[in-house]
Design goal:
Number of strands: 0
Distance between the termini: 21 Å
Structural class: mainly alpha
Amino acid sequence: LTRCARAAPSSPASPGAAGLRSRALALAKEAVPQAFAMEEDVDRARALLAAARCRVAACSPTGDVAMVEERARAVDDAKRAAESLESSLGKCHPEVCAARVLCQSLTSVG
């Protein structure tokens, strides 16, 4: 799931790439409620990060208001997840550092 956004959204993609991204997004959306049901903060944060990455990748760079708002919500989810990981694992944990890098990359894309 976390690889669905590795290709730049503005780059030309193969016809199957959009289908893979949408499937990854659907799986990530299913994973988030399941992670929340487990009541495990780290798993919740991981699911939110994966879903946020996929949601940002699904947002086209057209400037459509709905897409811009969806992207902003995804970025906010990623930031909340990074903060949750930091409080659970500690500020210098490698997974926390990777989450911070992901948040920065999501806000700088597009």
